[in-house]
Amino acid sequence: MKATLILFVLTMSISSLFAQEPVQTAVKDSIVFEKLIHDYGTIKKGSNGNTEFKFTNKGEKPLVLSNVSSSCGCTVPSWPKEPIEPGKTGVIKVKYNTAGVGAFNKTITVSSNAVNSRVVLRIKGKVTQ
Fold first, then answer.
1. Which domain holds residue 62?
2. Do 105 and 124 meet the contact criterion of CB atoms below 8 Å apart?
3. What is the mean pLDDT of residues 5-33?
């Protein structure tokens, strides 16, 4: 019993070492992001909380982002309001307010006219004094 438990814990530990960031695959008429997660790591209070999520319109018609919203008022996204032509790229800019100390894990939900009409991006990190 004890050996089984040790083997289980060891297997789970090794599996977590090889866990990777989620990856998007392109399907017809989709929006594809270069990354879905941005890890700030450990940053100082008051430091730059800006990052960007670059995306490509993999569709055959113009891509329109109808809304980009964050899970918290401490995270402010800005996005292109004009249509993104097929094959072209765009950028969603995100500013995280680093005034608070502690770990954070926030989401940004992107709504569009793409086949994958709802994509969730994530920012995470830890703010220290």
1. 24-128
2. yes
3. 54
Residue 57 belongs to domain with CATH number: 2.60.40.10
55-65 pLDDT tens trace: 999 999 999 99
For the entire predicted model, the pTM comes to: 0.79
Question: Residue 67 domain-assigned?
Answer: yes
Secondary structure (H, E, C), the chain? CHHHHHHHHHHHHHHHHCCCCCCCCCCCCCEEECCCEEEEEEEECCCCCEEEEEEEECCCCCECEEEEEECCCCEEEECCCCCECCCCEEEEEEEECCCCCEEEEEEEEEEECCCCCEEEEEEEEEEEC
Domain count, the chain: 1
In a domain, 88, yes or no: yes
